[in-house]
């Protein structure tokens, strides 16, 4: 299998995983667990560098500090490490 085809397959798998995570997070917003999610956050499917002495997080939200400042306000624009939805924008 050539590298282009392999990269295409990996990209399609990654997109599929992100779509599934987004749909799952949207479903969670309609349950009692919605209060556990950070408002306007988006799914982070994986985060980190896999390796012998590194951790990789696979979760909806890796950590509140990735989305919130020290006063529990949303990190926006250049201050945000991950994409935060605009007010009123759905998943």
Strand element count: 2
Structural class: alpha+beta
Summarize the main sheet.
2 strands, antiparallel
**Kindly state the mean pLDDT as a whole number?**
81
Major sheet: arrangement of strands: 1-2
Please tell me what the overall shape is: globular
- Give the SSE string: HEE
Q: N- to C-terminal separation?
A: 35 Å
**Helical percentage:** 25-40%
- Low-confidence spans: pLDDT under 50, at least 5 residues? none
Radius of gyration: 15 Å
Number of helices: 1
- Compute the number of structural domains: 1
Strand composition percent: 5-15%
Q: What are the main properties of this structure?
A:
91 residues; alpha+beta; two-stranded antiparallel sheet; 2 strands; 29% helix; globular
What does this structure look like?
The protein has about 90 residues and is an alpha+beta fold. The chain has one domain (about 5-80). About 30% of the residues lie in helices and about 10% in strands. It is built from one helix and two strands; from the N terminus they run αββ. It has one helix spanning about 5-30; strands at about 45-50, 55-60. A two-stranded antiparallel sheet has the order 1-2. The longest helix has 26 residues, at about 5-30. The radius of gyration is 15 Å and the shape is globular. The mean pLDDT is about 80.
Describe the structure concisely.
The chain is built from 1 helix and 2 strands, in the order H-E-E.
SSE arrangement:
Blueprint: H1 3-28, E1 44-48, E2 56-59
């Amino acid at each position: 299998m050539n590298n282009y085809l392999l990269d295409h397959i990996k990209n399609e798998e990654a997109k599929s995983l992100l779509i599934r995570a987004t749909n799952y997070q949207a479903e969670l917003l309609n349950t009692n667990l919605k209060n556990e999610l950070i408002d306007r956050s988006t799914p982070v499917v994986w985060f980190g560098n896999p390796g012998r002495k590194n951790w990789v997080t696979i979760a909806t939200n890796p950590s509140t500090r990735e989305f919130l400042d020290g006063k529990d306000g949303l990190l926006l624009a250049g201050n945000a490490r991950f994409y935060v939805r605009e007010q009123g924008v759905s998943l």
